[in-house]
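Thread: Transposase, structure

OP (GT): Posting the sequence first so everyone is looking at the same thing. Length is 195 residues per the record. Can we get the structure tokens written out before standup tomorrow? I want them in the notebook alongside the other entries.
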Amino acid sequence: MQRSLTRKKRGSRNYEKIRKKLVKLHEHVKNLMSDYIHKVTSWLVEQYDEIYMEGLDVKEMVENNESKTLRKHILHSNFSKFMSYLSYKAERAGRRVVKVNPAYTSRTCARCGYVKKDLTLDDRIFVCPKCGWVADRDYNASLNIFHAGSGLPLKPVDRKPLLYIPFSEGVYSKFPGRSRKSPSRGGDAPSVRAG
Ligand SMILES: [Zn+2]
């Protein structure tokens, strides 16, 4: 639609028609995204007493990033919106959001603490050269964030795979797991998965 707009003559009736349609479409996508973020943040606050997250400075990330594509992705990720929704909902519900220093959360081995300095953004799997721990990069980082935020020894945050709600499902279908589960921290949690 954007392309067909650039082909139309500025100011013509067709141009106006398509421009209005485009504005509506952008608005619609924005609303879907807000709705989605509302649902995810409500779900998180319902499920957990404490939420640990990296204290990322979005503004600084955007300004200091050399990659134009990455800058665009950061800006479009709605991360600031997510953080603000989560913070006010947590406060209202009496939950705690703990911000963790984001330095080396991805580069540190969650099992032995080795810092892998040459990890790049393309490395989706974390492989520790020291202890042999192999894990999804984000899972490894989430364990480090959990550890730093809670001060607890490393244990999986959840027995189930990490929450993943496809965008379309989050918006159009009933949200999973509305019931608040009793917190089960520690206890007989299995050791960190995948060796
Ligand atoms: Zn290791």
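GT: Both are above now. Quick notes for whoever picks this up: Residues 36 and 171 are 6 Å apart (CA to CA). DSSP finds seven helices and four strands in the chain.
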